[in-house]
Design a protein that fits this description.
about 200 residues; mainly alpha; 7 helices; globular
Amino acid sequence: MAFNLERQLLFYGQYHHDPVNVGIHITCVPPILLTGLMLATNAPDINVPSLISIPNLPVNLGTIGALGYSVGFILLEPVAGALISPVIMGSTIYGSYLTSTYGMTANWWLIGTQVICWVAQFIGHGAFEGRAPALLDNLVQALFLAPLFVWLEILFFFGYRPELKARLDKSVEQELTKLKQSERQRKVNGSANGSAK
């Protein structure tokens, strides 16, 4: 995955242009990311020398994942990434506390949140977008981009980088037009092939 913000957002935006589906994603993607990282804190802690350890910040799969998301987001979009990184890291640290203190009770709540949010997103794609989710074309790219895309949608709403938003909207519209033309052509070719028999 190349670190080109517009190309990455264009890929994701092609699958998320319906306002209702975007709203569902704005509501569901953050809990999916954060509960996923919280669940990953169940992994055993990695022992690090006390000289480089940070109190109340265990090194485990969840905190490593949170650091990966944070660094990746900062590389793609420094300002937006820097704004969301404390939320990602703080939620994961809190999740580590929850899973270590409340065990399976916390895990069941986290898993329930995951299930509800994933179901809502698939309904959003089926009922409103009329297109399969991006994760069916590129799982890793979709899972990494979804939280950043949602965060940028929120920032765009408040006027952040209007020139990027305008370029992205125009590019997404062009790609969707190409997709619709391709689908129409496929149907025409399929009809022609079917009637030739």
